[in-house]
Amino acid sequence: MTIARTTTPNTTRISHTPADMTQWTGRAEPFETARARYWYQLSQPYEDQNIGLIGFACDQGVRRNQGRVGARAAPPLIRRAFAKLPVIADLQQRFDGQLSTLLGDAGDIYCDDNDGFAESTLEQAQIKYADAVSTIVKQGGLPIGLGGGHAIAYGSFLGLWQALENTKNANVTPTIGIINFDAHLDIRQSDVATSGTPFRQIAEHLDAHDQPFHYCCIGVSRFSNTAALFDRAEQLGVQVISDEDCHYQPWDTLAERVKNFVDQVDIIYLTIDMDCLPSSIVPGVSAPAAYGIELGFVERMVKTIMASGKVKMADIAEINPTFDIDSRSCKVAARLLATIVEQHLLSA
Ligand SMILES: N=CN[C@@H](CCC(=O)O)C(=O)O
Ligand SMILES: [Mn+2]
Ligand SMILES: [Mn+2]
Questions:
Q1: Which residues does the record give as Mn(2+) 2 binding sites (predicted)?
Q2: Which of 46, 75, 125, 284 is least surrounded, with the fewest CB atoms within 10 Å of its CB?
């Protein structure tokens, strides 16, 4: 791989663009009752709502990982697809009178590398994104990151880590567990951070702070990871649940494996790389899956994980609108986003 390097990092390439509320549009239904509610009607610019959406409009990690760029354009499109989904009756009843306090839009961290490859723009974007994540966690909200490439994961983790600083000072270090739905382990060894390295970087960060690395990767394909990566997974004690396990093992067995993982940790960072799903369902990704795991399985497992009440950070990564068909991939991402939002609010 050839990496062009700039001599001085250009900090102006990274910006935090505030919420663009024109993205929040949908059907007008003046002849229906007030129960015909959609998420576009509830979203507000982020202040201190229960949930804060924050975009990571950056695919430089994908470029560095020799992938197909384009994921940078995804956050507004996922928002637009989510905005058009109805708010379920249970939520309307539970939060009657407080619906405007549920969902905040914290805008996008935008990484401009149009002219190719600047040395440290990804790292700067991760830091700026982590700051936004950390602010939301400290205010008691659940941040949900919208990628962007899967380099978002290192930023999500850093944001969560920063927010936990106060707890750590009190000598009660919460144990973080990471659950990643992904065809790829994303623990590559590399001289630079990429979309294929975030969980190896997190492992190193935790090791440097004498903290254990708890990582469960669900949907791993033996055709998408080398033996070297499986070796590293074993060395790092990664709980690997393969795509074939997801097809052939009974639900109860898999749910038990994941519940055992959840029981070992205090808080969870949940990340969904959309290339865990079959390319027929999600064509708009850098690395489409020939096999993939079922959407119904992912949703059921996400609900199970959310029901633990331990998820303090979540994100959805790798949607690449350039390769999408009829917004299919964005719609699936929006559905998973709605699942996380609903479950978080219902279990609050
Ligand atoms: N986040 C993606 N990571 C994958 C991409 C694989 C590919 O582009 O083929 C990985 O590095 O393994
Ligand atoms: Mn992947
Ligand atoms: Mn990934």
A1: 182, 184, 273, 275
A2: 46
